[in-house]
Amino acid sequence: MSRQASSNRTANLRWQNLHENVKLTVGEYHELWNPMPPRSTRIPEDVRATTSYVCSIIADAAARGKTIRSVGGAWSLSEVATSKDIMLGTRNLNLWFPLAMGFLDAPTNHDVKRIHYMQCGSSVGEVYSRLEKRNLTLPTSGASNGQTIAGAVSTGTHGSAFTYGAIQECVVGIHLITGSNPATDSILLERASDPVASQSLARRLGARIVRDDDQFNAALVSFGSMGFVMGYIINAEPIYHLESWRRVVPYDGLVKALMTTLDVDLVPMIVPSLPVHADKIWHVEVVLNPHDPANAYLTIMERWDTNRRLSAPEPVDTSAPGDDLLSVIGGLTAALPSSAGTATSTLLNLTFGDRGPVVATPYGTFTAPTVRGSALSAEIGVPYDRSVDAVELLMSCPEIKKYAGIIACRFVKASSALLAFTQFPVTCTIELPGVKNANTQHFYDAAYARLFASDIPVTAHWGQIYPIGDKILSAYGPNLHRWLAAREALLSAEMRSVFGHQSTPRGVTPGD
Ligand SMILES: Cc1cc2nc3c(=O)[nH]c(=O)nc-3n(C[C@H](O)[C@H](O)[C@H](O)COP(=O)(O)OP(=O)(O)OC[C@H]3O[C@@H](n4cnc5c(N)ncnc54)[C@H](O)[C@@H]3O)c2cc1C
């Protein structure tokens, strides 16, 4: 008897995201399940069964004129993971398998040992854990690991790998469901310039191979607007070690020069007391307290082969160099209800001082699977050489005086994804995690208004609070049109409506 996928369906569910800043009533919420119990010998076939099940939900939605959004970890602080009609919860869809030699296309350049299929709902932590057991790892990720792989890739989640890029760069194949017919609408989308999967793999998954660079680069960061991502084929890296430290340093000409040039030879001059190996620097982060503009919190991570001795777990309870800033700022809400400036400074002094060097694998570095407290966050992308100008502009907003939060600058190489917000040759991502209150939103509004009025090109993280409309799309230039054209090629008009959304680029609203 064939194995069936299923879902727990709840009507009129009152849904909220992790940080409880996005709330709505969803007409139908489906918590999806692969065929149960799991069977390790039937993984591609079970993924195929789940594909058929998702297609049946899509068919039903299309027949009733409803929209669908998939949701992973619900960590996004924007509305990208929501639909008032139908939402598909993917957290249980976490099958995976290493590709066997016969699953790789003959002319591929890839090393089969590094290529894995990860189903959409696998958490980033699960992906790290599976890979590290095989002496492999992800090239980069965000600071936390509780997001799903599909949610993280679909919004362009990043760390600060300024010579590499964001998490989606490791994806070499997208198993995408673009419609209601499992025989034709389950596709393995790859770049024509980088064929990976064999017909044998496609047959086992019940998918059709489509090779097209623009369609692949469009679907990579597409926040649920390009269909349902069933899984990714990823190219992992041999495991490496990160040696990380954080130091409080003056926010002076040297740090500003580091931010605007990424000349890592400046790092030993900024922190002469530490043995810095500039050629190994992989991650640069500068955190600023708007209420103490004289100082900066500099985090550096050096990337080494596995020839460093791993550090013992640290006994202290303050934040580690790899911690995510949203969790750090979450400590503010409950603990320190004083004025914005005093509260932010006290929190940072208590929890965000000098740390390390510590040596850990990427999984050991980016550990936080949960969040502390609640917070809001916006994240702005600007070209790295304008990072200091952009920070000055933010600091000059009168609204910043009541902002209990920080300004965190990281640096990410341009992504191949057409709508990745890390668009510039190197993007400075300016994250603004702040206390959940109206003052924080006022500051975001003022910050975006000032940036839009300036000559600094601006993008925004799709998974964080961003201003909806044309202004935030202008920095994408022709990439936006290429993305829209790829969407037209991949989805029928009916499916563009099913996978439409009011808060993503113009032209992808329902019924476009
Ligand atoms: C505590 C915390 C720390 C964070 N740290 C970072 C960081 O360091 N760096 C960074 O860049 N971002 C960071 N973020 C933002 C976060 O990484 C992104 O918002 C990410 O998208 C969340 O993943 P998720 O699984 O929760 O996705 P969700 O929020 O559930 O969904 C995100 C998008 O993916 C789509 N999606 C999900 N699954 C599928 C699927 N199967 N098919 C099609 N579409 C799908 C959804 O429709 C939605 O548009 C952080 C957020 C939080 C709350």
Q: What would the keywords be for this entry?
A:
binds flavin-adenine dinucleotide, Vanillyl-alcohol Oxidase, Chain A, domain 3, eight-stranded antiparallel sheet, 25% strand, globular, alpha+beta, six-stranded mixed sheet, Uridine Diphospho-n-acetylenolpyruvylglucosamine Reductase, domain 3, 15 helices, disordered C terminus, 512 residues
Give an account of the 3D structure.
This protein has 512 residues and is an alpha+beta fold. The protein has two domains: 6-238 and 487-498, Uridine Diphospho-n-acetylenolpyruvylglucosamine Reductase, domain 3 (2-Layer Sandwich); 241-467, FAD-linked oxidases, C-terminal domain (Vanillyl-alcohol Oxidase, Chain A, domain 3). It has 15 helices and 20 strands. The strands form four sheets. An eight-stranded antiparallel β-sheet has the order 16-13-15-14-18-19-17-20. α9 crosses α10. It starts with 5 loop residues before the first strand and ends in a 14-residue tail after the last helix.
